[in-house]
Amino acid sequence: MSPVNKRAEKARQTRARMLRAAGELFVERGYGATPLQDIADRAGVAVQTIYFTFRNKRNLLKEVVDTAIAGDDEPVATMDRPWFRDALEAETAEAHLRAHVAGTRQVLQRVAEIVEVLRVAAAVDPEVVDLWPKGENPRYTVHAEAAESLVAKPGARPDLSAPEAADVLFALLSPELYLLLVRDRAWTPERWERWACETLRHQLIR
What we know:
single chain, 206 residues, mainly alpha, 71% helix, 0% strand
C-alpha cells in the first residue's frame, strides 16, 4: 500500500472510530449530555480532530445517523443498496415482503436507537432538523418504492393500492415500534422480523 493510501486508510479508520464512539455515547447519555471531549476520549483522538473532521456536534450527529442507516460510509442511497434491489427483483409479493422486512430489520438494528436520540435532540436544538433536506420523509420514500413494486406482483391483495401498502409498511416497520418490542419488551430482532412478516402478510398478501 502506498503512503498516500495508508494515510487515507488511517483517516477512514479514525473517522469510523469517532462515529462509533459518538453513536454509543449519544445512545447511552443522550445528545445534549454528551460533550465532544468525551467522544474524543472514547475514540482515542484529540477533540480538535473531531472539530477538523465534522466542524461541530450537529454535523457529527448527522453523520452518525446517515452512517447507521447505510451501514457504512459509502455514498450509496438505500434504494440503490443490494438488499433493496434484490427485494425488488423477487418474483412474488410474498417473497418481496419477506426480503424487504429482512433488509429493514438489519437497518433498524443499527439505526432505531440513534433515531430516538435524533428525535430528542431536535426537540432541544431545532437547528438539528435543518441538517436534512425538507420534504417527504426519506423512510417513507423507501417504503413507497417497495410498495409500488410489491402490489404489482403475483400474490398481492388485488384491492390494495400502492399508497395504502406504503402507509402500512411505513407504520409497522417504524423505528418506534421496533424499539417498543425489541428494547422495551425484550423481543429478539429475529422474533420481531417473524412477527412483522406475519402481520404484514395478512395486510398485504391475499
